[in-house]
Model the fold of this input.
Amino acid sequence: MSTLLSRNPKTGAIIREIEKTEVVNLPQMYERAKRAQTLWSKLAVKERAKKMRHLREVLIRKVDAIAQVIHEENGKPTFEALACELLPAIELITFFTGIAHHKLKEKELWMRNPFMRYRQSKISYEPLGTVAVIAPWNYPFFLAFGDIVVAVLTGNAVIFKPSEYTSSVANEIQKLFDESGFPVDLVQTLYGEGDLGAAIIDQKPAKIFFTGSVRTGKAIMKQASQYLIPVTLELGGKDAMIVLPDADLDYASSAALWGGYTNSGQVCASIERLIVHESIAEKFKDLLKEKVAHLSTDTDLGVCTMEKQKDVYEEHLRDAREKGADFYCGGNMSQDRTRMLPTLVSGANIEETKIYNEETFGPVIAMTTFKSVQEAIQKANASPYGLLASVITSNVALGAEIAKEIQVGSVLVNEVVFTAGMPETPWGGMKDSGFGRKHSEMGLYEFVHVKHINKPRFGFVTFKSWWWYPYTEYQGAFFRSWIELYRGGVLEKLSNLPHFLWCLIKFLKNEPRL
Ligand code: NAD
Done:
């Protein structure tokens, strides 16, 4: 039997051993998921939402215990587990159970063209089937749980592959569904590494919801393309924060402090690039440095979740040093090597460094300056990533104008990172940050198949359609006169109407369809 070790990243102690899922068992698991999903999807959306609200009650009962598991296994402060994972999860259930019934109702489409109104089009939203949720370790509860909740609410079964570094948290998610009375096998957690993730794709899930690195995202998309499995990809980021010269510097430096260092910077949307107007750069640096000195390692800063992250952090620091960067704080691991210390770095060559250009996924802020707003926008956009960006200014209208020019999924004016916790708002990126949207109405529709049905409006066949065979002279004239009806303003349209009607009558009278 092969196992995964769940470890406390601070002490190295083993929290638990979890049996790895054997690849040979995958076909049976998919088969069982399909059986559970077939029955589950027959329940009305309202019934599914009711069950989900019960799950919310169970989650609230267990919230402190789960926060403790997240803290122990991932290393983040308990406060962050509660405020940035569990509360958003409760919010997410509340939002989606509130809108699902209405948003997933069958809808009639309005036919603009009056000549088409003898037929009726309706769309309905059907579950996809069994979907795969493949998740990372940095928000091990919220990111996976959110996808699973929406998948199940929309009538799907879920094959869930958590990160191999956070299997204890994943186990808590599985227990929540089991203890809340969801059908057995509707949600199945599979434990293992990347090769298990790849094997899950070979079983052809109906869709893959992936959150993780760009490298893995590309591998998943390549593999999925063999079977034409649709994917949504929530990938990395190197988010920029622009600080305009009119900004309240106390506010702006506090925003950078939290945006750059929360969850030890192990956040896809953390502030890793700071683009500050040259006139305020010195003052800004001093303020931020001073605030970093007040952060408590006991309560404010978590520990680094895994060794791999420490390596990237140290490599980026080394590269910045070699290129002559100035360090204002941090720049190294804590003495016991459990924490990546919050780092602020700048310098003449900063824009040439890895720490400025590549995702560090650690508590680093690489700062540069700008002279004009256009230069700030150009610098914000000079990144392969496009997840989030922030603009800090006293002129909110100007901030919103700048936001339109930045190539990312979301721009926050006078805020950072936090909209992942607001389920009403879409979450997702562009460029190397991936595509598809989590959360919001758009996120709901990622989990359903949109079925269109077109039928005679009055329940009986009225006449053979005009475009059917045979192709004839009057038929051609009729369609040509139809095109003329789109020309010009109302008067021109009215002047073309008699010819159109004459063609229609001639056509209907003289040339019956086959
Ligand atoms: P990762 O890509 O290493 O792993 C993510 C998941 O994919 C894990 O469960 C892993 O086991 C699995 N996996 C690895 N190889 C696979 C393969 N070939 N086929 C299928 N599955 C495979 O990412 P990570 O280190 O866990 O997470 C950190 C990354 O996630 C960062 O780049 C971060 O920016 C990104 N992230 C993005 C968002 C977002 O919303 N955009 C949120 C959180 C994290």
